[in-house]
Amino acid sequence: MEEGFFTRVYQIVERIPPGKVATYGQVAFLAGSPRAARAVGEAMRRCPYFEVPCHRVLNRRGELSPAPAFGGPGVQQGRLEAEGVAVGPDNRVDLTQFQWDGK
């Protein structure tokens, strides 16, 4: 399941447009495995493809990933802000404003 699931996850994440974010659970649902949010996180950590915008995938509270996931503190935040996504002082994104609709 892992290889096929990860491939579906990467294909979905590639569709998230700049300026929008998705949650691990949302990506899992769209990949056909609604209870696999943690596996989506693992897919993001292990992603070998630079073109997959893993920085656009957040947890269900809109919180950014721990610093090591993107090479150091502030990297994910910098990428999101460069795309117009506002990150609050609590390292959260307002999902009501920036969450991708999945279409």
Automatic annotation (TrEMBL):
Methylated-DNA-[protein]-cysteine S-methyltransferase DNA binding domain mapped to chain residues: 5-85
Protein's UniProt keywords contain Cell membrane: no
Keywords assigned: DNA damage, DNA repair, Methyltransferase, Transferase
InterPro entries: ATL_DNA_repair, MethylDNA_cys_MeTrfase_AS, MethylDNA_cys_MeTrfase_DNA-bd, MethylDNA_cys_MeTrfase_DNAb, WH-like_DNA-bd_sf
Biological processes, Gene Ontology terms: DNA repair; methylation
Molecular function in Gene Ontology: methylated-DNA-[protein]-cysteine S-methyltransferase activity
Catalysed conversion reaction: a 6-O-methyl-2'-deoxyguanosine in DNA + L-cysteinyl-[protein] = S-methyl-L-cysteinyl-[protein] + a 2'-deoxyguanosine in DNA; a 4-O-methyl-thymidine in DNA + L-cysteinyl-[protein] = a thymidine in DNA + S-methyl-L-cysteinyl-[protein]
Catalytic EC class: transferase
The keyword Transcription is annotated on this UniProt entry: no
Enzyme Commission number(s) of this protein: 2.1.1.63
NCBIfam families: ogt
Annotated protein name in UniProt: Methylated-DNA--protein-cysteine methyltransferase, constitutive
Organism of origin: uncultured Anaerotruncus sp
